[in-house]
Design brief:
- It is a single chain.
- The chain is of the alpha/beta class.
- It contains 11 helices and 14 strands.
- The strands form 3 sheets. A 6-stranded mixed β-sheet has the order 6-7-8-3-9-10, with helices on both faces. Strands 2-1-4-5 form a 4-stranded antiparallel β-sheet, with helices on one face.
- The longest helix is centred in the middle third of the chain and has 16 residues.
Length: 351
């Protein structure tokens, strides 16, 4: 069966007691109140962290869909809920026709999961890891042996297939983790930051394998803060921040939604309200935004969204000089997902 993914108003709030030293001061640390099970007791102060705040998404069957956002945006929490590892505070989620929390067994048969960090059994060889995974999902001995050999070859691990994985590099462990997730041929594959820490050659191999798997009608959801990866792989993607969806569409559609396309981040020797207003009058300029300065920073940074890039620099410099301000730095970037995120949030995807 072809299976898609759907979420409706997902909300997840994590609660935890504050650090022992919370509250400041130099008095003795007090052990937080707990009940007999070690959980925060009645009246114990807690700190709430809102990881997801009403996230609704629909991933079509057979689609490569990306969740793009900085660390802490809610990407991994979303994957945790969809793979039955994290219970949502509110909202619902479905894999195919199955409710993730009401029908966990059915959901687990449909999905393969690759976590951010490899979680392999170091006491086994690469081949044994794949064979045991296949047995767990009910593959007969002949089928799982053939499947394991094919995956080891495709992920370029055949020469290390019968060695303990404790001696593998990080990239080899990541490749084996993805091969293991594919071992039972799941309809939906979750990849959480799949290329993090990989060298460029291994990253390109991984992208090629993901595309091949998708061509067989499989649905793939990947999380990333790598704009190049999202642009190269995803047919559609959602940009999320603070647990909310701030943009949704194809990479081309999202890049086209940036005002003017080009972003010029310019820096001046001092702040001038008059200069900022006059920047808005230059030909091709769609939007001008002042960036809040760091404490103690006397210079001023401005984002200029425009239909053109390099040809604007001399005009900006002349305008600055006419206002008694020096142009100290300029950075030009073409239409990109990074620009889109900057436009919506005022900060970088890597922040």
């Amino acid at each position: 069966m072809l299976a898609g993914i759907r979420t409706h108003e997902l909300r997840k709030v994590f609660t935890s007691p504050p650090p022992l030293a919370a509250g400041g001061g130099f008095g003795p640390r007090r052990k937080p109140k707990t009940d007999k099970n070690g959980s925060p007791g009645k009246g114990a102060p807690t700190r709430e962290i809102v990881a997801l705040n009403g996230l609704s998404l629909e991933v079509l069957p057979g689609e490569i869909f990306g969740l793009l956002g900085p660390n802490g945006a809610g990407k991994s929490t979303t994957v945790g809920i969809l793979t039955t590892r994290v219970r949502p505070t509110n909202g619902q989620a479905w894999i195919g026709d199955y409710d993730v929390w009401a029908q966990q067994v059915e959901v687990k048969r449909l999905i393969g999961v690759v976590a951010q960090r490899p979680n392999l059994d170091f006491s086994l060889t690469a081949r044994e890891i794949l064979l045991f995974h296949g047995a767990y999902f009910g593959l007969d001995s002949r089928a799982r042996a053939a499947r394991a050999s094919a995956l080891l070859d495709r992920f370029k691990l055949t020469d290390r297939a019968d060695q303990m994985v404790r001696g593998f590099s990080g990239g080899m462990m990541q490749r084996l983790s993805i091969a293991r997730a594919m071992m039972h041929d799941p309809q939906v594959l979750f990849l959480d930051e799949p290329s993090a820490g990989l060298d460029p050659q291994t990253r390109l191999l991984l992208w090629e394998i993901i595309r091949e798997y998708n061509q067989g009608g499989k649905t793939i959801l990947l999380t990333t803060h790598n704009m190049e990866e999202a642009d190269a792989l995803c047919q559609r993607l959602a940009i999320i921040d603070h647990g909310q969806n701030i943009a949704l569409g194809t990479p081309a559609e999202l890049k086209a939604s940036v005002p003017g396309g080009f972003l010029l981040r310019v820096r001046f020797s001092k702040h001038s309200t008059e200069l900022i207003e006059r920047l808005k009058t230059l030909g091709g300029v769609r939007e001008v935004r002042l960036i809040e300065p760091e404490p103690g920073d006397d210079e001023s940074s401005v984002d200029v969204y425009a239909d053109r890039g390099g040809s604007l620099v001399s005009e900006i410099a002349n305008l600055a000089a006419a206002n008694g301000v020096e142009l100290t730095d300029v950075h030009i970037s073409e239409p990109s997902l990074e620009n889109l995120f900057l436009h919506h949030t005022g900060r970088s995807l890597r922040d």
